[in-house]
């Protein structure tokens, strides 16, 4: 059942639903302790009772938490409370790359600028041993100040460095 505005989840107050995916729903929320908006991704109740799904959700949180890069979504915490699992991340205002592309082709300079930012973010993840495995325009946000943020590491996989990486 979706959360409604005003509902409290842990220390956070739900402001509005902003999206949904295969693992759950994402809400714009308010962090009153630090007076800022955050995003909360809530694992769906059906999956919260599935140990494998809960494990994937927790691994996603741990994978993203290992990363610190301007082109990768920042994670603040992973919480399991009263049978609900959720991840708290920065709230990114803007639009997905898919929405931008649906508006027509990008100018060449802009496309190259976005591609470079995506490449830098993915390179940073790879340097930390994380492979995204679901990079697509729906998982790339363009912020209001025209910067790229890579989202949704739900299918990410940690990998060991190979001889080629050394």
Give the class from helix and strand content and strand pairing.
Answer: alpha+beta
Distance between the first and last residues' Cα: 48 Å
The radius of gyration computed from the alpha-carbon positions, rounded to a whole number of angstroms, is 16 Å
Largest sheet, strands/sense/barrel: 6 strands, antiparallel
Residue fraction in strands = 25-35%
> Any low-confidence stretches, pLDDT <50, length ≥5?
none
Number of strands: 11
Helical amount: 25-40%
The total of helices stands at: 4
Instruction: Give the SSE order as H and E letters.
Output: EEEEHHEEEHHEEEE
Taken from the alpha-carbon principal axes, the silhouette is globular
Q: Give the rounded overall mean pLDDT.
A: 89
Record the strand order, biggest sheet. 1-2-3-4-6-5
How is this structure best described in words?
A hairpin with a 3-residue loop joins strand 2 and strand 3 (24-31). Helix content is 27%, strand content 33%. With 166 residues, the protein is α+β, with helices and mostly antiparallel strands. The chain contains four helices and eleven strands, in the order ββββααβββααββββ. It has helices at 45-48, 51-65, 97-102, 108-127, and strands at residues 8-9, 12-20, 24-31, 36-43, 75-81, 84-90, 94-96, 130-131, 140-143, 148-150, 157-158.
